[in-house]
Amino acid sequence: MAETILTAAPALDDALVMGPNRVAERGDLSMVSVAIPQGGGPDLEEALQAAFALAMPAPLLGSDTGQIRAISSGADQILLVFPHTAPRPALFVAEKLAGAGYAVDQTDALLMLEIVGPDTPAALERLCPLDFRGMGDGAAARTVMDHIAVTLLRCEAERFQLICARSFAHSLLHAVETAYRDVIEPV
Asked: Residue 9, class by beta-carbon neighbours within 10 Å (0-12 exposed, 13-18 middle, 19+ buried)?
């Protein structure tokens, strides 16, 4: 029997550059969802600290070591985002957590867009009802952009990351491009 080898492909073709702003897919990161077992919050908190020197993220905030980020993604659930080039990042996380959480790879199911530039906060204000200027670096929020469920991360004042279902990649890119265009080329 012939062996089939699958190769990961980006959801989007190239980066989008609009004036001094840039939108690009972050295909270099793995995303692993970790569910917290019932009553297992303290154990997971301890395991995250021991395995990654990472604190459990508070709601609306992320926890970041520079190498790995934890985002509160729902009740009893976090999303770990980190560079990982080997296959099976969920297995890597599960081994590190040693049973303190249930890990599921979301890398192929989710998309991360990084949007950077001086017009970024103004463009985002056209897409969703969040106070971007009031968010501190490292803040995370779940919102809706053009009818798409998005987790928004503020990295810096003019640099944000947007996470959505991969199937909405082109729709989210179109919404972001339209918002930038409205800011850069007002009618």
From this structure: exposed
Which helix or strand (DSSP H or E) is residue 17 part of?
Answer: strand 16-18
78 sits in which H/E element: strand 77-83
Name 78's bridge partners.
34, 72
Whose tokens are 């001086």? That residue is 118
d(CA 173, CA 176): 5
What is the spatial distance between Cα 63 and Cα 32, in angstroms, rounded to a whole number? 15
> Using CA atoms, how far apart are residues 129 and 145, in angstroms rounded to an integer?
9
Q: What's the one-letter identity of residue 138?
A: G
pLDDT tens figures, 35-86:
999 998 899 999 999 999 999 998 878 888 888 999 998 888 999 999 987 7
Question: Cα separation of 72 and 34, whole Å?
Answer: 10
- Token output for 145: 């952009």
Report pTM: 0.90
Residues in Cβ contact with 56 at an 8 Å cutoff, skipping those fewer than 6 apart: 41, 44, 45, 48, 63, 70, 78
Q: How many CB atoms lie within 10 A of CB 125?
A: 15
Query: Residue 130 forms beta bridges with which residues?
Result: none
Q: Please enumerate in sequence order all residues whose Cβ is within 8 A of that of 98, keeping only pairs 6 or more positions apart, or say none.
A: 47, 51
